[in-house]
User: Fold these one by one.
Assistant:
Number 1:
Amino acid sequence: MEKGRNDFIPKPVSRRRFLKASAVTAGATALGLGAGRPVLRALTAASQDRQIENQGEKIFQSSCFNNCFSHCRQNVHVRDGKVVKTSLASFPDNRYDRICLRGLAHPQRIYSPDRIKYPMKRAGERGSNQWERISWDEAIRTIAKKFGAVQEKYGKTALGFHVGTGDFGTLNGTNPGSIGLLQKALGVTNISLAVDAGFLPGINRVCGFWPGAWNINEHADVIHSKNIYVWGHKMEVAAIHHWHFVAEAMENGAKLTVFDPNYTGLAAKAHRHVSMYPGTDIALLMSMIQVIIDEKIYDKAFLLAHTCAPFLVREDNGLYLRMSDFGVAPTQGPVNPMTGKASMIDLNVVWDPATESAVAVNKVFAPALEGTFTVKGLKVRTAFDLLKDRVAAYTPEKAVKITDVNPEVIRSTARDFARIKPSTSIIGFGSQAYDNGPIWGHAIATLHAITGQIGKPGSFIGNTWFAYLGVNYSLAAPESIPMLYLPELIKNGTVKGKPRPPVKALWVSHANPLTAWVDSNYWINTFWPTLDFVVVADEQYTDTVRYADMVLPTAHWFEREDILTLGGTHPFIQHGEKAIEPCYESKPDVDIHRLIATGMGVGESFAATNEELLKLCFETPHFAKMGFTVENVRKQKALRFQPPGYVAWQDLKFTTSSGRMEFYCEHPLDQFQAPVPVDRLDSQRLPMWVPPREASRDNPLFKKYPFVLMSERPRFRVHTQWYNIEWLRELDPEPTLLINPKDAAKRGIKDGDYVEAFNDRGHAVAKAVLSEGIRPGVLSYPKGWHKQQYKAGCFSELDHRAFDSVGVNQSFFDALADIRKWKGSV
Ligand code: SF4
């Protein structure tokens, strides 16, 4: 068996010095902007001094291309062709200058003992991690033969490609880029992630579609807010680069409220912590909306002028009453910049109280906000009336039974949000990690719509996540199915009820599905055995690599040139310079894709040079309009894609059909922008809370498994990346499970004991950490450990893979479990 070990691990900074510097950096970040930046600057200055000391050191600039969405600017220090360290680099706007321990630990990743050095083929059972080194020639020949045989026997789409979020390089990464080109050329099935960002389509329902993600104020803008609500988000750990702006807002007098079942580090810094029962966030939001409507503290002027509130809705079909219902033909409107097609204007109809008649929305200044009317024999109601009805069942006295939140707390949070201007919401992934994720987004956007808290400095619906995906989508794979549909394909030979060929061979890159996907045992025990051949292209020996038939070594981000078009927590597109040659026999992804295309007889799709391909991927009409070219990204290194002080929806022209915020969504779309089924329209047109599929106290299974199993984003890993970094493991050595001391005591569990969390799907053994901050009845584990690092099992074994056909969400927080002291070997 071969397993790569390094012959060179540079030690430019001793561990003691690293930990000392890291502690200063972490402390600095925790202290916020005021204290943090000078310390980081001192570290940078010190590194520059050392550069002078070390003649011959070259500094390149790049970033982490991963999915932590901070994308910090970094100096890559190179001596004798080796990366010896990384340090903070400046953006043109230095409020965004940050780095974290992971960014400082890159050399240990590049030269990790777990780095894949050569192409390898399996030399034992899948999962045995036994490998035989082979040449690139043999690897490509074998892949071409095996993939070709599967496509010939079962059809082109029997070859599945799963490309995860571990690299957002425009040419080499997840963006359509060269992997999209390869997929298109081979006619494969793209197996997409069932996203864990279910709230996006919900917000887009209300505000309208926005390319790539959704439209939010520049991250620094939160300092203008006076009232900040953070939902399900440990931003003090997972988004330190956004948190410091919140801290600055607090120094300016803003009030912070944290909504989280657990008492997090962020909650400890907040003015108010609202602990709801897990999975009840939507019910809580609906109760807040109920209070605001009941107490008439909504923003009436905003509702009438900028939302669908006064629009009349037909009782017979749930559609808006429009002028076409009066025989007025729609007219052609301007070209929709989102679709490139001309829009059709069919004006909505409102009720004019002055004339007691139904009129076009543009004919009356003060339409009725509430009421039921009969127009042309049709019964109609205002959209606001329908919302009022929908939330009527969520009075605080009723909502407390669902959420456990004291009615007076619900009232005060609702009143503050309506009255303190500007108020803002920062949303994490926790609240929507259930199969009704889109409704969570729909509900919070509705709260903003009725209070007019949008389109102003300090007021937005935000996340520490900002995508700016203006890349070339024409390169995307032609056919895509979310991974959650694979079980249907395996069992019935159908997807969404329609027959399609099986997936018999699999390519995986920038992903570690066997650890990261819900119900991980299913994929290993049921999906994997159906596959004739599995190839994983990666940089490290992940759990998924271990179950591959062949593994290809990919280059690290600093070993190739690329462009990063996702701003993350800053508004910059960045150039990633190539700092060193690819280590060992690794290759940049684009070169691997070219080899495979050539081997499989579609080399003409890669006839262009890498330079030409980079231009093809990046120089889209979208970026051309902004004057962005590969050349000027190279020259300027970081280009701002938002003007300073950018405020989303500032002109209050939303991209819905009416140009207003439509909390009543006539034609709701699902996670993939397809219309929701007719029988789901009522539950999707307005926000509606439904209990989590599993983690509900009303579920009979709750008697057997009385804990809700949740996870939290860790400081030391990004998903499952950085899992094996020696320096970071000293600070965070092994998987842990956070348990409330009272729950632990009932089971005789002490701090530091190994405990087994289990349910009918699987188990995980981790070290118990007793914490008063964990809500009784809840278990929480830091994400991102690999199966190989647990004493036994893995937490993703415990998650179910059931999903809602509208949300198509992996429900990471929707698992019931129990715990016991681990009696196995440790
Ligand atoms: S891991 Fe994220 S936060 Fe840390 S340095 Fe890299 S981009 Fe920045």
Note: Residues 64, 68, 70-72, 99-100, 102-103, 718 surround iron/sulfur cluster (CB under 6 Å).
Number 2:
Amino acid sequence: MSERMIAIMKTKPAYGAELVEVDVPKPGPGEVLIKVLATSICGTDLHIYEWNEWAQSRIKPPQIMGHEVAGEVVEVGPGVEGIEVGDYVSVETHIVCGKCYACRRGQYHVCQNTKIFGVDTDGVFAEYAVVPAQNVWKNPKSIPPEYATLQEPLGNAVDTVLAGPISGKSVLITGAGPLGLLGIAVAKASGAYPVIVSEPSEFRRNLAKKVGADYVINPFEEDVVKEVMDITDGNGVDVFLEFSGAPKALEQGLQAVTPAGRVSLLGLFPGKVSIDFNNLIIFKALTVYGITGRHLWETWYTVSRLLQSGKLNIDPIITHKYKGFDKYEEAFELMRAGKTGKVVFMLKD
Ligand SMILES: [Zn+2]
Ligand SMILES: [Zn+2]
């Protein structure tokens, strides 16, 4: 194994990142070293790249970026049990404490002391990465690395879509960015019909159709609520899944969901949102779920099995596959411009 490696590093507290050569890290106690086979860009990585307000308050350069990964264990640190060299793995991003009130009730996804891998630690946009053993998830060999790296965001999509019954349910999805697209794939694989998608970008509406959306709506040109009512015989959808973080989309979705329907909210809003709670939630007797992180480890089992089932239509979502990190700037700029689904860097030789 070489001693040096290439990595995308946030070197300065400013826009962008640099491709650097650094030492291959050593796994400490409770850690493993993985050789990265595939890694994908998340919205979080883009925020760090752009150096937005959140990133400025949270990230401490220099730091290797990235957290979505499929890799192979090449070295095991002291005290690690149950993980061996050669294991094919992915990584849960939330490093939880196991001791707080939430953790002790099994609610690890809302651990009060959560640290985020690749945000509060060095990440996986590198040829090798050190990973906390407690966050390692073993993959079956049947899942190719370019799918296995998507399990972390797929987990968000699965928790959003499967927070309640979905088979045979009519669904409105607002926002067809990478997570919304994964949500469409999960909803279709789970037997939802019709799946209606509201998305202003034509590029993303076309992707939504390729993934399997039954109807797409341009909310800037069409009346979303009227379209949904027309499609559902005036009843509204059973399930409303919000991925966009746009206040207007939230309001339209709450209007378009049927009384006693279910709402899952994943998209993060830019600030406080004003909503008519009386008429849109209370009198409609809606069930509203806030979605964050992934249930450990139940969501990972679901994601892995959905991938193994072959029923998830993932290929159209992976719009860009790069060999190595050389074109990372192009990748980030395309993503910034909203011209991508998921972007994957392949490091498998
Ligand atoms: Zn992610
Ligand atoms: Zn905890």
Note: Residues 178-189 form the longest helix (12 residues).
Number 3:
Amino acid sequence: MRKETILRKSVSDDAQEVYRAIELIELGARMQLLETELTLSRDRMIRLYRELKGTAPPKGMRPFSADRYMIWMPNLHSSLFYNIYLFLKERTGCSRRDSLIKGYRLYVEHCERNQLEVVVSLTRAWTLVRFFEASLLQQTPCCRCKGIFVAHKHDPQSNFVCGACEPPSRAGKTKKAAIARIAEFERS
Ligand SMILES: [Zn+2]
């Protein structure tokens, strides 16, 4: 009887892991994210990836600096995502992984509803969470709009003005330039 219970639990845990893997792959996860966050074997995740995407997963990820989250548009989007993530994790009892998945889905929905470019990919959102966990980043309030933004760990907390209240002069001049900057953020 006890053995049955254990077996049932492990089958259901396994099913949940597969479901999470499917959600993450559909949201654009790469192998490094899947291997770090899930307990499924690498072979199974590669098979799932091929099945869902019809292609082999891309190899590796380039190193990414926390500085990249400070560029004005990525900073606004990263801050939006991180606020949603933290709300889910701290106020709704979601696990860290589920807060990442649900939080990212909500962020994408917000962009789509407001006809905004999705600036932060799932990989970048995940890296952001890991930078916070490694204490490389902190949240800093804007002294004008009172919004909470992503900042370097030891940046001063007072008199910070966010990129929405004070956009750089070149910001948003042309859509083409904005898209080029977003592509640069993703590539770098
Ligand atoms: Zn502000």
Note: The CA atoms of residues 143 and 158 lie 7 Å apart.
Number 4:
Amino acid sequence: MTLVEGNDEKGIISSKGRKVKRILKEYEVDKGERGVYNSKNRLNDLTGREWTFFINSVQITDFARDEKEFELWKFLQESIIETRYPTNGKDSVGHNLRKIHPSPKPPQLIKDLIAFFTKEGGWILDPFMGVGGTLLGASLLESRNAVGIELEKRYIDTYKEVCKREALKEQLTLCDDARNILNIDQIKNRPFDLILTDPPYADMLSRKRTGGDRKDKGAFTSDERDLGNVPFEQFFYEFRGIMEKAITLLKNKGYLVIFCKDMQPTNKYHNMLHSDIVNEICKIKNIYFKGYKIWYDKTINLYPYGYPFSYVSNQLHQFILIFRKEE
Ligand SMILES: C[S@@+](CC[C@H](N)C(=O)[O-])C[C@H]1O[C@@H](n2cnc3c(N)ncnc32)[C@H](O)[C@@H]1O
């Protein structure tokens, strides 16, 4: 960290290792390379920088001996998928258009999941498609067919624009409420090999958050049918209802993959949403939880939450929950 006198820029240590300039306050001590120590810290002797790195919810301590081999097998063998996908240029798969959505998923990550859970010619369903992370992931692979349902037409339009611009196959999109899934002619009789989705989690996005991803902001839509707008207590029941219908379209031995990010715990509730979701989905007949992968998104910045008084987790990871239909 470089300290330059006369510059009052606010200090944030980013996960990208960006250097920050600022003047010291009277209670701050320059610890050189370690960063700045806050003498009001009653918890430990860490500098702000050390604190911020400690509260990262993901800590990688193991490194492969052979980098090449690690790259090759990383996806299959690691329970933690560490990524830093580009957010501009050709390799971003139209991220600059997709970013009108509060939480677009990277198609490259989805592509790897689809490649694991389906064969060529496979059909994939996403009942909450947003701007099409799942559909784009399917199109990045050879001969996959995907169907997406989304309430908000402008997200579908954006998806279509990305397909055109990136010269990717446009998959089937349906502007509808996912609650109607079994009444939609184009899909009601289709057996799917994989359901891969990233649902809205109740009114999570509109809540004031302390240790969350600051990129997630605002509600997805103002539509009252949007699962993102239903009260938290009602959400689980509604979500299970939709998934119960969707799962009737899933082939026997087909997989269900759900993205989920935990919320900050409170003294009233642990808020491990991933665990609540697993409990809820397991109430559905013939669907079984098989485990999870953790996705560590390294494009998200670290912030010194709680510093210098108390531990607040910097959640840079999401759960990829994996279920299988077994009749
Ligand atoms: C977390 S986002 C999905 C983002 C997506 N994975 C992507 O890459 O863009 C969830 C989406 O579900 C949509 N949604 C919410 N309730 C819905 C419903 N009842 N039927 C269909 N779509 C719904 C929201 O508008 C939102 O775009």
Note: The pocket of S-adenosylmethionine is lined by residues 101, 103-105, 128, 130-134, 149-152, 155, 177-179, 198-200, 220-221, 225-228 (CB under 6 Å).
